C-alpha cells in the first residue's frame, strides 16, 4: 500500500457514511412527500455509497473479516431507510 | 389546578444551572479562540497561558457547561413528569452552590498555579493531569457527590410521586451509570496502558454512552413539549435508541484501545463495533425527517424545534461521518491524533450535545414567557441558528483539511519522524487551515453572543398571539 492510498481510504470512508446519510434523508423525504423524483434522487447517493464501500472492500489492506464487515455495512445502509421508515410509521400509528 | 406559567422551585433552579452553563460556554469559546490563535502565533501568551493550559480550560469548560445544562434539564422536566416538587430541594440548591464555588476555585488554580510536582499534592489540589478530566481529585469527588445528590433527588421524587414511567427509569439507571463510570477515571496506576484502559471508560463510556442516553431522555421530553408527541411514541423510540446506541457504542469503546498497549483483539472488536456505530445515527435521521415532515414544520416553539431536528443531523454528521472516516484501525494507524480527531470532536459535541442544550433552554423559555397557545418565534434565533451551524462547519472543514495533510505528510510519507512532523506543520494545508479555523472561531463567538441576546429577549414580545 502506498501513501496516497491512505488519503483515498479516508475520502472513501467519509463519502461512504455521508452518502449513506444523504440516501436516507432524500429517501425518507421522497416517501413522505410522495415525490418519485426525490426518491429517485436518493438512489444517486445510494449508488455513491455502494461505490465508496466497494472501493474500501477491494483495498488490499483489509483482510476477509474487514471486507465482510464493510459488505454488511453496505447492505445495512441500503436497508435502514426503508426499514426505519416502516418502524417509525408503525410507532406513529398509535398517534392516530 | 396549577396555571400554565406556574414554576416549581426546582424549575427556577434549572435556570441557575443554565445561566452558569451559558457563562461557561462563553469561557470555553474565549479559551478556544486563544489556543486557536496560538496555532498561528505560538508565542502568544507564552509562559502566561501556555497552549496546554488553554486547551485544558477549553475542554473542561465544555464538559462542565454541557453537564450543567443537562442537570438543568433534569430539574426542569422532573417536576413536570412527577407532578410534584422534587424531594431534597434544599440539597439540590446546596449542590448548585458548591458546584459554582468549586468551578471558580478549579479555574483559578488552573489559571494561577497551573502545574505542580508529580506528587499527591498536585493530584489532589492542582490537577490529576489526565487529558479531558484534569480536575484535581477533590473536585472529582465533588462531581460524584453532586451526581449522587441528583440521583437521590430523582429516585426519591419518583418514589414519593409513585410515577414509575419508562423515561424516568431510563434516567435513574443512566444516572447510576454516570456516577459509576466517572469513578473509573479516578483510579491511578503507574502502568500507562492500564491507566489509559480505565481512563477511556470515562471519556468514551461516560461521555459517549451515558450522556447519549441522558440526551435521549431529554430529547424525549423536549419532543413531548414542542411537538406534543405522545408518551408511548417517545418511550418506544427511547428504548430503541438506548438498545441501538448501547448495542454498538459499548464495545465501540475498543477503537480507543487500538494503540494504548491493549491486547490485539481490541483491533477487531473496536473496529467492528465502531463501524456499526453510525447505523443508529442514520436511523435517527430518518426519524427526524419523518417528524419534521408529518408536522410540516408546525410547532409551538420554532427555535427548540429547529435545534432538536438539527440535533439528529448534527449527531449523524459529527459522530457518524467524521467518526467512521478514521475509525477502522487500518486507517486510524495513520490518522490517529491528527486534526481529524479535533474536527470530529468539535462537530460531534456540537451536534449531539450543544444542540440539545439550546433546544432545552428554548423549551423552558416558552413556558416562562408565553401563555397557552402562543408561539415562541422571532428573527434573531434564526441568525444565531444559521451562523452557529455555518461557523462550526467552518471550524471543522479546515481542521479536516489539516488532518488530511498531517495523515499524509507526517504519517504515511514521513513515517511519524520528528522531521516529518515539522514538515507537516509547516505545510500550507496545515498553516492556512489554522487561519481559517481562527476566523470561523471568531464568527462562532459572535454567533454565541447573538444566541445569548436572543435567549434573554425572545418571547418577551410574543410573535403570534
UniProtKB/TrEMBL annotation, chain A:
The chain crosses the membrane at residues 6-29, 36-58, 64-88. Keywords: Membrane, Transmembrane, Transmembrane helix. This is Uncharacterized protein. It comes from Methylacidiphilum caldifontis. The lineage of its organism: Bacteria, Pseudomonadati, Verrucomicrobiota, Methylacidiphilae, Methylacidiphilales.
Automatic annotation (TrEMBL), chain B:
The keyword Transmembrane applies. Keywords: Membrane, Transmembrane, Transmembrane helix. GO terms for biological process: aerobic respiration; electron transport coupled proton transport; respiratory electron transport chain. GO terms for molecular function: cytochrome-c oxidase activity; heme binding. SUPFAM superfamilies: Cytochrome c oxidase subunit I-like (SSF81442). InterPro entries: Cyt_c_oxase-like_su1_sf, Cyt_C_Oxase_1. The keyword Transport does not apply. One of its GO terms (cellular component) is membrane. Pfam families: COX1 (PF00115). The chain crosses the membrane at residues 15-37, 57-78, 90-115, 135-155, 167-188, 200-224, 236-259, 265-292, 304-325, 345-365, 385-409, 434-456. This is Nitric-oxide reductase. The lineage of its organism: Bacteria, Pseudomonadati, Verrucomicrobiota, Methylacidiphilae, Methylacidiphilales.
Amino acid at each position: 500500500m502506498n501513501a496516497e492510498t491512505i488519503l483515498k481510504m479516508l475520502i472513501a470512508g467519509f463519502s461512504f457514511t455521508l452518502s449513506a446519510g444523504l440516501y436516507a434523508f432524500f429517501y425518507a423525504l421522497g416517501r413522505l412527500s410522495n415525490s418519485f423524483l426525490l426518491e429517485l434522487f436518493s438512489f444517486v447517493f445510494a449508488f455513491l455509497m455502494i461505490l465508496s464501500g466497494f472501493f474500501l472492500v477491494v483495498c488490499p489492506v483489509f483482510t476477509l473479516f474487514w471486507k465482510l464487515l464493510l459488505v454488511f455495512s453496505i447492505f445495512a445502509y441500503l436497508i435502514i431507510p426503508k426499514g426505519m421508515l416502516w418502524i417509525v410509521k408503525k410507532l406513529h400509528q398509535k398517534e392516530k | 389546578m396549577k396555571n400554565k406559567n406556574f414554576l416549581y422551585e426546582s424549575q427556577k433552579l434549572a435556570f441557575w444551572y443554565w445561566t452558569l452553563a451559558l457563562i461557561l460556554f462563553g469561557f470555553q469559546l474565549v479559551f478556544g479562540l486563544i489556543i486557536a490563535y496560538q496555532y498561528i502565533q505560538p508565542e502568544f501568551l507564552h509562559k502566561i497561558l501556555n497552549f496546554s493550559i488553554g486547551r485544558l480550560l477549553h475542554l473542561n469548560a465544555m464538559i462542565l457547561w454541557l453537564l450543567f445544562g443537562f442537570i438543568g434539564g433534569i430539574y426542569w422536566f422532573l417536576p413536570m413528569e412527577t407532578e410534584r416538587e422534587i424531594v431534597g430541594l434544599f440539597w439540590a440548591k446546596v449542590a448548585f452552590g458548591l458546584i459554582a464555588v468549586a468551578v471558580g476555585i478549579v479555574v483559578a488554580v488552573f489559571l494561577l498555579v497551573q502545574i505542580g510536582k508529580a506528587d499527591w499534592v498536585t493530584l489532589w489540589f492542582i490537577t490529576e493531569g489526565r487529558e479531558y478530566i484534569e480536575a484535581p481529585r477533590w473536585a472529582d469527588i465533588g462531581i460524584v457527590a453532586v451526581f449522587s445528590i441528583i440521583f437521590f433527588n430523582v429516585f426519591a421524587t419518583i418514589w414519593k410521586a409513585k410515577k414509575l414511567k419508562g423515561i424516568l427509569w431510563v434516567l435513574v439507571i443512566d444516572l447510576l451509570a454516570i456516577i459509576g463510570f466517572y469513578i473509573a477515571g479516578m483510579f491511578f496506576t503507574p502502568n500507562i496502558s492500564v491507566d489509559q484502559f480505565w481512563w477511556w471508560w470515562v471519556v468514551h463510556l461516560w461521555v459517549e454512552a451515558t450522556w447519549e442516553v441522558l440526551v435521549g431522555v431529554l430529547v424525549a421530553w423536549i419532543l413531548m413539549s414542542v411537538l406534543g408527541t405522545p408518551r408511548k411514541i417517545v418511550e418506544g423510540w427511547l428504548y430503541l435508541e438506548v438498545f441501538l446506541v448501547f448495542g454498538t457504542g459499548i464495545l465501540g469503546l475498543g477503537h480507543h484501545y487500538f494503540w494504548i498497549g491493549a491486547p490485539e483483539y481490541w483491533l477487531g472488536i473496536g473496529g467492528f463495533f465502531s463501524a456499526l456505530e453510525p447505523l443508529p445515527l442514520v436511523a435517527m435521521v430518518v426519524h427526524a425527517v419523518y417528524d419534521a415532515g408529518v408536522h410540516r414544520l408546525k410547532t409551538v416553539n420554532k427555535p427548540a424545534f429547529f435545534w432538536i431536528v438539527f440535533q439528529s443531523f448534527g449527531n449523524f454528521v459529527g459522530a457518524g461521518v467524521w467518526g467512521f472516516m478514521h475509525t477502522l484501525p487500518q486507517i486510524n494507524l495513520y490518522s490517529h491524533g491528527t486534526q481529524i480527531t479535533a474536527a470530529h470532536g468539535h462537530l460531534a459535541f456540537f451536534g449531539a450535545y450543544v444542540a440539545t442544550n439550546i433546544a432545552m433552554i428554548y423549551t423552558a423559555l416558552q413556558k416562562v414567557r408565553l401563555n397557552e397557545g402562543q408561539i415562541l418565534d422571532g428573527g434573531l434565533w434564526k441568525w444565531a441558528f444559521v451562523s452557529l451551524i455555518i461557523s462550526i462547519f467552518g471550524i471543522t472543514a479546515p481542521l479536516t483539511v489539516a488532518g488530511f495533510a498531517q495523515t499524509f505528510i507526517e504519517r504515511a510519507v514521513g513515517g511519524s519522524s520528528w522531521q516529518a512532523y515539522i514538515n507537516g506543520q509547516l505545510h500550507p494545508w496545515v498553516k492556512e487551515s489554522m487561519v481559517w479555523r481562527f476566523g470561523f472561531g471568531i464568527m462562532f463567538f459572535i454567533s454565541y453572543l447573538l444566541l445569548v441576546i436572543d435567549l434573554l429577549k425572545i418571547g418577551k414580545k410574543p410573535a403570534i398571539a
